[in-house]
Design brief:
globular; Ferritin; single chain; about 260 residues; mainly alpha
């Protein structure tokens, strides 16, 4: 739910705010009903189609979907113009240090990839939002498309957090890479939206390659094919007995979709 007239449902509270609510409830002996805002208004109770309670605050049942696994994974935009070639070789140059740093630790590699991949959609959506406000014109639906892309990439991260434990220096690297990339992409989008989207398209091509290698390691047994996290089963509407391989398959299909959009 979005904030309405100052009301914030529990799904939009930060972790700290939730802890304050839970702590207050514990101090009161657990007899008082937990509420989602300082106005004392209870948030809407959401249930699954089978009537069981919905346990996720980061996404709702109507935001779930089934990924299109039939999408063409080999599609490639051949760089022809100067901007195409600039975008292509920029992305290729970024792949080398990533390969050196993560080697074949594809779980942590996926986490780092998603912390970066979730930035462009948010930056593009934000800038198009401001442009629409300045020019008093419609966005053609692109604002929502880009924000949905950013949210989808964020859910990829939420999923891989359940199966991979990054080391402290990898977490520190996320701060550095995200800070640099956000500002660089922001400036690039201001200079040339076409260049910015082309960069994302080639980044997604690299993501498809990385997840394909991830699948190869799972098939060889180098990486344990553990059960799929519960959050992934609900988000992609996967069967209850799905595994990590199934998750990587749907994530790769998402990346192919983002490639085509950009």
């Amino acid at each position: 739910k979005f904030p309405v007239m100052g009301v914030r449902w529990r799904s939009s509270l930060t972790l700290g705010e939730k802890e304050q609510v839970n702590n207050k409830n514990s101090e009161d002996g657990g007899n008082k009903e937990v509420v989602a805002s300082c106005w004392g208004i209870k948030g809407e109770e959401v249930k699954k189609e089978d009537g069981t309670p919905w346990k996720w605050n980061c996404f709702r049942p109507w935001e779930t979907y089934q990924a299109d696994l039939t999408i063409d994974l080999k599609k490639h935009h051949v760089p022809t113009t100067f901007l195409d070639k600039l975008a292509y070789w920029t992305v290729k140059s970024l792949r080398f240090p990533t390969d050196v740093f993560f080697q074949r630790r594809y779980g942590c590699r996926a986490m780092m990839l998603e912390t970066v991949a979730a930035v462009p959609g948010m930056v593009g959506g934000m800038l198009l939002h401001c442009k629409s406000l300045r020019r008093f014109e419609y966005s053609g639906g692109w604002i929502k498309t880009l924000l949905d892309e950013a949210e989808n990439e964020r859910m990829h991260l939420m999923t891989f957090m359940e199966v991979s434990q990054p080391r402290w220096y990898e977490r520190a690297l996320v701060f550095t890479v995200q800070g640099v990339f956000f500002n660089a992409y922001f400036l690039a989008y201001l200079a040339s939206p076409k260049l910015a989207h082309r960069v994302v398209g080639y980044l997604e091509e690299e993501a498809i390659h990385s997840y394909t290698e991830f699948l190869k390691e799972l098939d060889k047994g180098t990486i344990e094919n553990v059960p799929a996290p519960a959050i992934a089963i609900d988000y992609w509407r996967l069967p209850a007995d799905s595994t990590l391989r199934d998750v990587v398959m749907v994530v790769r299909a998402d990346e192919a979709h983002h490639r085509d959009v950009n």
